């Protein structure tokens, strides 16, 4: 069987905002399978903020990195039956030949194997395996519950709250009995945050962050889930600097998840001067990466799937149709055009 794979190649490392000639669509004829090989076909592909900074660690030209949900279409390894589904770190490509034995020990997204069986989605759409029941959902789950450790009655603040991770954080916090405050960059996103249960939602581009927090959380913020870094500028100045120095409660916890607002910066961002506040308010700030918790990943997905089934978590996907449009879906994500998880239907 002759298979021609399509793939996106990073021709030049990104400098500032990505440009169309940085990523180019190419074709590649794949060889016949050898013993032990497995041929995968992409069903859904993920675009995520981490791809922007991580790709700069690669030497272009190189195939673009990323995770996909793929099915086995030909197999010379009995452990991988035709039609079975797997999550694979195959990058931006339609077809991939993978040899499990040859790649044994090579780490993937979760700090585990490059290819892992698709978890039990409890009847939910397959695309959820890349979003609410995949890496973003697990990031929200572990970042909030392990790092922030919220207690019933705590106030939880989330920025970039309408994204794949932020939208899950707020809903999990509500399940745990917390008051939730979310910030996003458009009125449409703010409206959606209220629809999925955020107690307060604000447009950081049009409303003063400090003034809104004084109104929504006069007692202070117990947990701050930071998706967008200290360079998330809005009315009233630097977002995180404002939150941490003026509105954290004593003993507050801060989870540093992402820095999407500075990924296209051409100069390293300067962090806010927070040490004095950290000391006197006895704050805990911790960065984390989801694969720290891989041993608990399947249990987390099972609980998230149950919450979705019970209607406790609502899901929104921003779907780009067609592999050929993957680049535009990614660029739109970096500009904040998506609400919920951005995925590509192959």
Would you give an account of this structure?
The protein has 2 domains: about 5-130 and about 315-345, Medium-chain alcohol dehydrogenases, catalytic domain (Quinone Oxidoreductase, Chain A, domain 1), CATH 3.90.180; about 135-290, 3-Layer(aba) Sandwich (Rossmann fold). It has helices at about 50-55, 135-150, 165-175, 185-195, 210-215, 240-245, 275-280, 295-310, 325-335, and strands at about 5-10, 25-30, 40-45, 60-65, 70-75, 85-90, 95-100, 115, 155-160, 180-185, 200-205, 220-225, 235, 235-240, 250-255, 285, 315-320, 340-345. The strands form 4 sheets. Strands 3, 5, 6, 7, 8, 17 and 18 form a 7-stranded mixed beta sheet that branches. A 6-stranded parallel beta sheet has the order 11-10-9-12-15-16, sandwiched between helices. Strand 13 (about 235) and strand 14 form a beta hairpin. The chain has about 350 residues and is α/β, with parallel strands linked by helices.
């Amino acid at each position: 069987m002759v298979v021609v794979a399509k793939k996106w190649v990073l021709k030049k490392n990104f400098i500032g905002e990505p440009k169309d000639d940085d990523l180019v669509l190419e074709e590649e004829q794949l060889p016949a399978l050898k013993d032990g090989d497995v041929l995968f076909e992409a069903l859904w592909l993920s675009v995520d903020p981490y791809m922007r900074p991580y790709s700069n660690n690669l030497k272009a030209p190189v195939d673009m990195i990323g995770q996909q949900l793929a099915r086995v279409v030909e197999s010379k390894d009995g452990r991988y039956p035709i039609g079975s589904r797997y999550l694979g770190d195959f990058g931006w490509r339609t077809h991939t030949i993978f040899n499990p034995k040859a790649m044994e020990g090579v780490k993937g997204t979760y700090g585990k194997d490059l290819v892992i069986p698709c978890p039990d989605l409890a009847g939910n759409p397959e695309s959820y395996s890349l979003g609410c029941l995949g890496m973003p959902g697990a990031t929200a789950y572990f970042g909030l519950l392990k790092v922030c450790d919220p207690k019933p009655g705590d106030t939880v603040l989330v920025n970039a709250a309408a994204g794949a991770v932020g939208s899950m954080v707020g809903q999990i916090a509500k399940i745990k009995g917390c008051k939730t405050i979310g910030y996003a960059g458009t009125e449409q996103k703010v409206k959606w945050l209220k629809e999925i249960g955020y107690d307060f939602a604000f447009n950081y581009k049009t409303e003063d962050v400090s003034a809104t927090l004084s109104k929504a959380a006069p007692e202070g913020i117990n947990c701050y889930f930071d998706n967008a870094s200290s360079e998330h500028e809005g009315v009233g100045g630097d977002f995180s600097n404002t939150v941490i120095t003026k509105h954290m409660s004593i003993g507050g916890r801060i989870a540093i998840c992402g820095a999407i607002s500075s990924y296209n910066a051409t100069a390293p961002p300067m962090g806010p001067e927070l040490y004095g506040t950290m000391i006197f308010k006895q704050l805990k700030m911790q960065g984390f990466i989801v694969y720290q918790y891989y041993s608990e990943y399947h249990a987390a997905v099972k609980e998230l799937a149950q919450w979705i089934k019970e209607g406790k978590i609502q899901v929104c996907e921003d779907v780009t149709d067609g592999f050929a449009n993957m680049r535009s879906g990614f660029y739109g994500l970096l500009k904040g055009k998506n609400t919920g998880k951005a995925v590509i239907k192959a």
